[in-house]
Specification:
The chain is of the alpha+beta class and 367 residues long. Helices cover 29% and strands 31% of the residues. It has two domains: 2-139, Gcn5-related N-acetyltransferase (GNAT) (Aminopeptidase); 141-328, Gcn5-related N-acetyltransferase (GNAT) (Aminopeptidase, 3-Layer(aba) Sandwich), CATH 3.40.630.30. It starts with a strand and ends in an 11-residue tail after the last strand. The structure holds coenzyme A.
């Protein structure tokens, strides 16, 4: 048995592993999705040598027994650049679980010359194992704006008066505003990079959302239609970014607005938050949600009616709209750092991390 990044020529082993470990409709079996998610990631070229896929596998000659999918990312932390892997799909073949293989391949990942490892959407079963491997677990902040009583119909616990009343309280009325400063864009260009490097990047820590990255992550993503917007001041300089997706809610005629990215210069945050509400209403969504680890916009969100929310609805949203999970689920992240230069105290202070549900691998339709 050996652990290595999978050679492209052995891709058929990966397909076999997916067929045996996931449902046959699993999205990573779609070559176009897999290629976009891995080799087309703009950070891939610098980090993974020619001929290899960014998929760390534990294998013998005939099959793969366990794997982690890795995506390289540039990572800015208090003005310094570190290397990071976003990892996902930690999977041990169902016939080989509870034999230490999951821990073995994770140990190997932790020895690679990468400063930070991160993973999102960690399952209940795996949280315990990762914490024993010194990963730090964090639930993402959940934000919710509810637009109509119809949203209440979606909640399993709607007959519980505490849940009903709590949700009624947060229903927000329609507002009109002047949103001429907010424009849809089909791609992010060089003027966006100017904003990113001087406007937002210095405020938050974490993965670089430069134009290359955002263009790959949203406009070029297969299967999903993301709606991207920029906020411009009166001199047409970019001051902020918003990315939304409108999801159909399973087995209903309702729609939900999922906010994936939101970052602006502070003076534009209120207008941007109001725009999002107004847009979601116009698209006939019954609620809007957003997940992140960055609390910098909380007060602007609260003013617009997007509330930090621990209500039962916010834990049910993944079940309602998440293309993969059919269960209530907290959207979370785990982080592990290798580099002792970054102190634990600053690193695990997540208020400054700009991580959103758009970083995660949740956007995966099964077919
Ligand atoms: C989660 C998963 C990857 C774990 O892999 P695994 O090979 O079964 O786990 P391991 O045998 O290496 O380690 C787990 C066991 O070792 C134990 N353990 C003991 N010492 C340990 C150590 N130092 N570090 C880690 N685990 C340790 C754990 O408590 C656990 O005990 P268990 O067998 O009673 O569950 C596997 O269950 C899986 O593929 N699940 C389905 C997909 C999934 O949920 N993926 C996670 C996405 S985040």
């Amino acid at each position: 048995m050996k652990i290595e990044f999978l050679d492209k020529k052995d891709r058929s082993l990966l397909e076999q592993f997916y067929r045996e470990s996931y449902s046959p409709k699993y999205i990573l079996l779609r070559k176009d999705f897999f290629d976009w998610y891995t080799v087309k990631n703009p950070n891939y070229r610098d980090r993974f040598p020619d001929g290899q896929l960014p998929v760390l596998v534990l294998r013998d000659d005939k099959r793969i027994l366990a794997h982690w999918v890795c995506g390289a990312q540039k990572f800015n932390f208090f003005g310094r650049n570190f290397s990071m892997f976003w990892t996902s799909n930690w999977m041990v073949h169902p016939d080989f679980r509870h034999r230490g293989l999951g821990a073995l391949i994770t140990n190997f990942l932790q020895k690679l010359p990468v400063d930070v490892l991160a993973a999102n959407m960690v399952t209940k079963e795996s949280r315990n194992v990762l914490e024993r491997l010194n990963y730090q677990y964090q639930d993402l902040n959940r934000y919710l704006a509810v637009f109509s009583d119809e949203a209440l119909n979606l909640v399993n616990h709607r007959n519980d008066p505490r849940v009903r009343d709590r949700l009624r309280e947060v229903i927000i009325p329609a507002k009109n505003g002047d949103f001429a400063n907010i424009e849809p864009v089909s791609a992010f260009a060089e003027d966006y990079n100017e904003f990113w490097h001087s406007g937002f990047a210095p405020v938050a820590q974490g993965g670089a959302r430069d134009a290359d990255f955002l263009n790959w992550r949203y406009p070029q993503a297969p299967f999903f239609e993301y709606r991207c917007f920029v906020v411009k001041d009166n001199q047409k300089k970019i001051k902020g970014v918003i990315v939304l997706r409108i999801d159909e809610i399973r087995n209903t005629n309702y729609r939900a607005c999922r906010m994936l990215e939101f970052f602006t210069d502070p003076e534009w945050a209120k207008l941007a938050a109001e725009f999002v509400i107004s847009y979601a209403r116009r698209e006939k969504c019954v609620f809007l949600d957003y997940y992140n680890l960055f609390s910098g916009f909380d007060s602007f969100f609260a003013e617009a009616g997007i509330l930090k929310n621990d209500s039962v609805l916010s834990t049910e949203i993944p079940r309602l709209t998440q293309p993969v999970a059919h269960e209530n689920w907290f959207i979370n992240a785990v982080f592990w750092k290798r580099n002792p230069e970054i102190s634990n105290e600053t690193f695990f202070n997540f208020d400054k991390w700009y991580t959103t549900s758009g970083d995660s691998d949740q956007d995966r339709k099964n077919f």
